[in-house]
Amino acid sequence: MKKETPFISERLLKLLRCPMTGVELKLKGESLVNEKFEVSYPIVDGIPVMLPSLKRKTRKSKKNKV
Predict the structure, then answer these.
(1) Please, what CATH class does the domain formed by 10-57 belong to?
(2) What is the mean pLDDT of residues 25-38?
(3) pLDDT at res. 65
(4) Which residue among 3, 34, 36, 55 has its CA within the 20 to 30 Å range from the CA of 17?
(5) Cβ distance 6 to 30 under 8 Å?
(6) Taking 60 as the threshold, does the pLDDT of residue 44 lie above it?
(7) CA–CA dist 9, 63 (Å, integer)
(8) Alpha-carbon gap, residue 25 to 3, rounded angstroms
(9) Which residues pair with 57 in a beta bridge?
């Protein structure tokens, strides 16, 4: 069975902000991600769960040092 991507309208996505920092969130898979502070919030049954206690740390991409 194929997993569906959660539907969040562009209009709603523009209004949503990280509850901890106020930074804009990006939709990535089944989470709303604060790329600046590397945290994400899950989307459960199509509903963003933006409780600070449920935030998760995201993996930062490794950059080559020069």
Answers:
(1) mainly beta
(2) 92
(3) 38
(4) 3
(5) yes
(6) yes
(7) 32
(8) 22
(9) 39
Using the 8-state DSSP alphabet, how is residue 20 labeled? T
For the chain, domain boundaries: 10-57
Across the strands, what pairs with 56? 40
Provide the pLDDT for residue 63: 46
Q: How far apart are CA 63 and CA 40, in angstroms?
A: 21
66 pLDDT exceeds 70? no
| Long-range Cβ contact pairs of 42-49 (< 8 A, separation 24 or more) | 43/6, 43/8, 46/6, 46/7, 46/8, 48/8, 48/16
Return the residue matching tokens 């991600």. Answer: 33
- Hey, what are 56's tokens? 């998760």
